[in-house]
Predict the 3D structure of the following.
Amino acid sequence: MKTYKATRISIVAEKLIEDGIIRILEDAGATGYSVFEGGGKGSHGPHPLHRPAIVDGFAIIKIEAILGNRNAAERIADAVTQKYFGKYSGIVYLDDVEILRPAKFGIPQ
Amino acid sequence: MDLITDFLQTFVGQLQQPTLAFLIGGMVIAALGSKLEIPDAIYRFVVFMLLMKIGLKAGMEIREADLSALMLPAFFAVLIGCLIVLIGRNTLARLPRVRFDDALATAGLFGAVSASTLAAGMLNLDAANIAYEGWVPALYPFMDIPALVLAIVLANIHQRKKSGADGDEIDIRQIIVDSLRGAALSALVLGLVLGLLTRPDSVVKGFYEPMFRGFLSILMLIMGIEAYARINELRKVAQWYAVYAFVAPVIHGLIGFSLGTVAHYLTGFSPGGVILLAVIAASSSDISGPPTLRGGIPSANPSAFVGSSTSIGTPVAIVVCIPLFIALSEIVFQA
């Protein structure tokens, strides 16, 4: 089994800005992304997981995308932080991952 | 003083309605640490059902109604929404330790309308056999949208003055579109259009209407639980928010009641309609307002505005204002 190196970018943010973040991801060339719903707590206050989110936009989501190009990932991280995290809740982090099927992520074989 | 005893009797009688009971019940069990939760999907479904029913009936009534009778109350609704924001700007925003943005967002929520409070008001009126024009709930967007837009515009102007022409153009059209696209207003407007243009009588009578009371009681339970949960957040911000949230519903409701009474004498607006207008004025948005304000005034702290509205504003509007205005209308209109 041969694995290839890639970078995963994870963005945890309030649902309100989900669309904007996805736009940044797609504009930067991400071939796909995954969205997960969640709960937790941050400097802005709690995001309850089990109670109905009376205000849907305040619930949190994690968006993950795998990119072949580390620079692209860093640019996305910068863009999201600049555009949104001054005003809205969220964090972004990068990690190195190993993947199979590089063509899926736009990585040349 | 007969008047006072009558007033108190009506008031206390209203307090026993299931709407209030479930709201308080929710707050109590949350305070006791109960793990009872109504799932999110059910909550969303309930909100949809309530607003759809309200919209359908309103649409069906507008078909038969004399549209000119609608115009004055609609104008008053817009006026009240804007007035509430301006009052908040000149009172709450000027108090010490209160941030301008937070205050304006709070005033915006109180100017906007709460679907749960509206539904509770309608149910209490039905139980007391007080008639009202079926189209009165359609006044919802007339008060809601201007209040939210005005709050966002004022906050942005203030922001621009502070940081000297900070970018961020306000797109008013986008705010209105986003508001209308929100789940609550979408359901209401869809119901209105369907009621107006089609013949939904069978589904309204067979499904939406019978389920209304039951679903409202569930929504009240959820709002009660949420109200208690948000009290902790409210504690972290200035005390003035709690004071405002207690006092504002009554004052705003009285403004609504007064203007409604004017409409009564000018165009024959029914006493039930006057009460409902007062209730809408007293209400503070919990569902549709907060995301719009968070998008439009991102610097505002949600603990302040959502906390004020959901923890104190809505319970006060439902528990105090609805019975108060029903009792008041008995005196004013000798119904």
The longest helix of chain B spans residues 201-235. Chain B is about 80% helix and 0% strand. The domain at 2-333 of chain B is CATH 1.20.1530.20 (Na+/H+ antiporter like fold). The interface with chain A takes residues 37-40, 42-44, 183, 222-223, 225-226, 229, 233, 286-287, 290-291, 294-295, 298-299, 302-303, 306, 310 of chain B (CB under 8 Å).
